[in-house]
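Record type: monomer structure entry
Structure origin: computed from sequence
Chain ID: A
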Amino acid sequence: MIDELHVRDVALIHDASIEPAAGLTVLTGETGAGKTALLSSIKLLVGERADAGMVREGASSLEIEGRLFLRGDDEDGTVVRRRVGADGRGRVELDGHMASVRELAERVGSAVDLCGQHEHQRLLSVQTHVDMLDSWAGLPAAEALDAYRDALAVAQEAAAELERVREMGRATGERLEEASFVLRRIDEVDPREGELEELEAQLPRVEHGEALMAAASGARELLSGDDGACDALGEAVRVLGDAARYDEALGAWAKTLESSLIDIEDVASELRDYADEVDFDPEELERVQARLARLEGLMRTYGPRMADVLERRERAREVVAAASDGGELERRAAEELERREAELARAADALDAVRSEAAPRLAEAVSGQMAFLEMGTAELVVSQERLPRAEWTRSGPSRVELLYRPAAGLTARPLRKIASGGEVSRVMLACKVVLGEADECETLVFDEVDAGVGGATAVALASVLARLAQTHQVIVVTHLAQVAVAAQKHYLVRKSGGDVPETSLVELSGEDRVAEVARMLSGDTGSASRDLAREMLSARAAG
């Protein structure tokens, strides 16, 4: 939800602010007053591409600043600041931190839907129709889609494995000979996992066995030999123990030294064992060095790491096995793929079943809203067509498309091909009302949704927008008084004269709002028009 928006130097706007209502907000004004500039500002706010030509003449840059409350936001909301220079260079900040336009679009763009007469991408793009249907179907569709996607991923992995096995089976004589050579070469050395690390740790001990044994023996002699540390500590413990009869403090120190003596005796014992185990063996040194040399030779050829060598051996073994097992590997891989494809087909059937059940209900609900919008017998039809297996995607195994039937008895055809801009606007509005809370968009911005509308249709349109505003934040640019009086907030967009015209935004209330509604009704603000405007505002407030 857009909490507030501040615009500077965009087209004819020098400095203007708007704080839309949580429900329905309308923007009215004479044609050419600058409503388009405000809509362009909202586009920039949600991450659409910028154009240096949008910068107000004479200004060095434009700046859009807004605060939005998105799902999951804390009480402070998300603050967006976007600057575009006259030279085309731009800057984006999210909550005071630099960001890219892409990050802005990902974080904010999905929360605001711009529904202009010529900007119905979400409705006219077939790729979004399945998402609309799944939103309508709710949790059953979400669960079925997750299961289908999991099955699709597993089937794709099985297909890739089968192709890999077949590729190995198609090994030419030259490739098979190479794999056999690699396998023999590595198997001759027969490296074990972790062996290299063990030898590298062992080599220093084998190389310096004499020095290690001398160090251990010498240290042990200093500790436990005649007149060594143990004898000295033992004597100190005895002397302090005897004197402790006269001062208990000496007894405490005696116990501390006694504990240290025990530790030193343990170390001396371990040093003796160590010296017994370590010895200098030239043959063992030669063996370790030779083994390391062979392993390092493999790494130079097939490495650089031992893990690479082991992986190369495994690949070579698979190639040799595939060429000699009579197709057994391929048979097992094909059977696995067949099992996974069967599971995928069941998941696809389940997903299609959920969508098939929901599709006519969605079509009926939207068509009902279309009738309420004075679209006669026009209907929305949800088409679902199973695709060949090769065309299945993560969205599902079938093509889902919204079709439009202009009147009973006529053939339903793709909405994007036969509906006029005004019809698409009303169909979109009907969809938004039906989807309600299921729609991920929190803010809907309608431009020219009332194109070609008047009379009873205008009243119906106002009612539908008001109903939609119960579940969404709705911002509407309108020329209809019936829509204007339904709003919680009403902003007038007006343009001043002068050499450089300037667009301003004014929130209307009281008699100012009455005057604007009167102008929208009859083009003047005479007493008769004002009386009718007051009556409409009062009726809407009471209703």
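Annotation 1: The chain has 19 helices and 15 strands.
Annotation 2: Residues 1-117+424-431+441-508 form a domain with the Rossmann fold fold (CATH 3.40.50.300).
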